[in-house]
Amino acid sequence: MGKIQRYSKDTESRVEVNCPQIVKQYNAHMGGVDLADMLIALYRSNFKTKRWYMTMFSQSLDICVNNAWLLHRRDHADPKDRLPLKKFRIQIVSELLHKNRTRVTVSQENDPPKKIITPAAPRPTDAVRYDNNGHLPMFVSYGRCKYCKNGYTNITCSKCILRLCLVSKRNCFYNYHVK
């Protein structure tokens, strides 16, 4: 047995008490489980069900998302690149809601025109943008291209809902949808 210090109400100071070795080891290595329980409690997926396995599935899903977020934090050393847990969960949901997320990259020899770096309007997530599925041109009223700085167009992407140039000199429609 080891000795540890605890606060005593009677003496209003710290006193030494006996502590079994197993309790010391438990307290020393309990941090990961406490952290996992705390993260799950922050944003729990609520499944109202009478089936026990759905509750287990909900708990497993929360553990997987939290572990993915911890890996995201580990891999992004720069705090500006890190997402908070809530935004990370929202991004996962928004990307899973879109069908056919397969990514195909195609290279193009043409130099793309000057791009708009900070868009004024929200753009779709990268998983939707690069999935190469359902991006069909539609004719709409004329407006400014959302990819280059100098183009006006009457063509919009049916999935992204963005105006993109589609002319012989500038193919912003293609350049926007390819990495």
Automatic annotation (TrEMBL):
InterPro entries: PGBD (IPR029526). It holds the Pfam family DDE_Tnp_1_7. Residues 12-69 form the PiggyBac transposable element-derived protein domain. It comes from the Eukaryota. This is PiggyBac transposable element-derived protein domain-containing protein.
